[in-house]
Amino acid sequence: MKVAMIGTGYVGLVTGTCFADLGHDVICVDKDAGKVERLKRGEIPIFEPGLEDMVERNVEAGRLTFTTSYAEAVPGRDAVFIAVGTPTKETDGSADLSAVYAVARELARHITGYTVVVDKSTVPVGTGDEVEAIIRNENPSAQFDVASNPEFLREGSAIDDFMQPDRIVIGVDAERPRAVMQALYRPLTMHEVPMIYTSRATAELTKYAANAFLATKVTFINEIADICERVGADVQDVSRGIGLDSRIGPKFLQAGAGFGGSCFPKDTLALTETARRVGRPTQIVEAVMAANTERKRRMAEKIIAACGGDLRGKTLAVLGVTFKPNTDDMRDAPSLDIIPYLQKAGAHIRAYDPEGMEEARKYLTGLEWTKDAYSTMPGADALLILTEWNEFRVLDFERIKSLLKAPLVIDLRNIYSMIEMATAGFTYHSVGRGVVLPEN
Predict the structure, then answer these.
(1) Cβ burial, residue 279 (10 Å; 0-12/13-18/19+)
(2) DSSP state for residue 347 in the 8-state scheme
(3) What's the rounded mean pLDDT across residues 5-13?
(4) Closest by alpha carbon to 300, among 345, 271, 270, 341?
(5) What are phi and psi of 307, to 5 degrees?
(6) What is the C-alpha to C-alpha distance for residues 40 and 34, in angstroms, rounded to an integer?
(7) In DSSP terms, which residues pair with 26 in a beta bridge?
(8) Strands 382-385 and 408-411, how do they pair?
(9) What share of residues in the chain are helix, strand, coil (percent, to 5)?
(10) How many CA atoms lie within 13 A of 423 on its CB side?
């Protein structure tokens, strides 16, 4: 089938490339000419495991191309996906849909033949109706339908999430667009992937509801972690004890520094604004947002307390700044709140991240970046682990101790066991598990 993907950001580039890998003819559109030229040269603007090889393979096979031209991309396509950003408005916290509507106006002028226009961007309920009205106004003779197809891609494992999804949600209000969407996803549904058909409004709300629920799970276990520290319990055992309950499940029950990224903060806020607009405020989700903001401040204070209550003149070695491993995404990363808080308290920060440093330089200032994990440590008063990259799980303990001023590790991702850290001779602070002192 012939597919156009408008937007080559995280969702658009991954989704378009994966559709090409399924055998479809995909053309990706972006208004940034420089970005398009870089993509044509094989330069991938985001870090996502496996994406660079997949792009190269499908470009060479002739199934994946890039352009800035709607006139080249849209005519004669079976489906045109809108996959542009919907950032939070600073004025009221709602989703900024200006890019979505601008795309709708532009693509409307180039539709030829029957086309399904698909909202892949995360959008509030009613956006599909507005997109349909815009296209109808711009091109009254166009033959088209609008569908909603929310994405559920996790950064760092997005290709697997597309190719082996838990479910595919399609919001359509007629049989003809349903048939097109079914054909597009047929290579996946042949392997019994559940394909859920709903109304457009239901599909639009499903995305927000899913992210709000996951954010709630993360925030819940973080608050349980705080209780664990006060009563001497172990949050990891609590997580396992409740996660084995099939009604709850084990995912998103890892205590840490709070949620971040491109989805949870933005989508929870947008959902609360939608709920207020329709007169049904979401008290639980609003509490989750407030608790997550407070979480980052409390984690910074936890670090200060572990360092003796005073950071003036001290150097802290920081491992990881992205909001999660296997991505270079810094959007709403906990480090963006924690590191400035520590700097304001007087600390000098020496930091390393395997993929996120170039992006982090746009947001974090006044700190020293290093070439690897160990280069953060010479003479540092403490080692902080803010992101659970795999390479941080296998560090040389003796080398760390030889570099740090004191064997103090503050692990906000619980990547080490209490016993191994005590045996290795560290004072080890983690989340929801208390503190252990060195055995020797």
Answers:
(1) exposed
(2) -
(3) 96
(4) 341
(5) -90, 15
(6) 10
(7) 3, 64
(8) parallel
(9) 45, 15, 40
(10) 5
Cα torsion 381, 386, 390, 391: sign: negative
Q: For tokens 């598990």, what's the residue?
A: 433
Distances (CA, A) of 355 to 46, 322, 360, 387: 10, 8, 10, 11
d(CA 20, CA 112): 22
Kindly list the distances between the CA atom of residue 96 and the CA atoms of 91, 247, 273, in Å, as whole numbers in the listed order: 10, 35, 12
What average pLDDT does the chain have?
Answer: 96
Is 307 known to be catalytic?
no
Residue 382 CA neighbour count, 13 Å, CB half: 27
Q: Which helix (H) or strand (E) holds 51?
A: helix 51-60
Identity at 200, one-letter amino acid code? R
Report how far residue 103's alpha carbon sits from residue 80's, in angstroms, rounded to the nearest whole number.
Answer: 10
Identify the residue whose tokens are 């005519």: 75
Q: Are the beta carbons of 215 and 264 closer than 8 angstroms?
A: yes
- The predicted-structure confidence for 37-87, as pLDDT tens digits, reads as follows 999 999 999 999 999 999 999 999 999 999 999 999 999 999 999 999 999
Cα–Cα distances in Å, from 263 out to 89, 279, 282?
14, 24, 18
123 Cβ contact partners less than 8 Å away, ≥ 6 residues apart: 86, 95, 97, 100, 148, 204
8-state DSSP, 310: -
Residue among 385, 400, 238, 250 nearest 325 (CA): 385
Q: How far apart are alpha carbons 310 and 381 in whole angstroms?
A: 11
Residue written as tokens 């542009």?
A: 84
Our CA dihedral for 196, 197, 201, 206, rounded to 10 degrees, sits at: 0
Q: In angstroms, rounded to a whole number, what is the distance separating the alpha carbons of residues 90 and 88?
A: 6
The one catalytic residue among 18, 28, 263, 307: 263
Structure tokens at 373: 């994990």
Q: Kindly report the pTM of this predicted structure.
A: 0.92
Terminal CA-CA length for the chain: 66
pLDDT at 440: 65
Cα 94 to chain center, whole Å? 18
Residue 155 tokens read as 């950064």
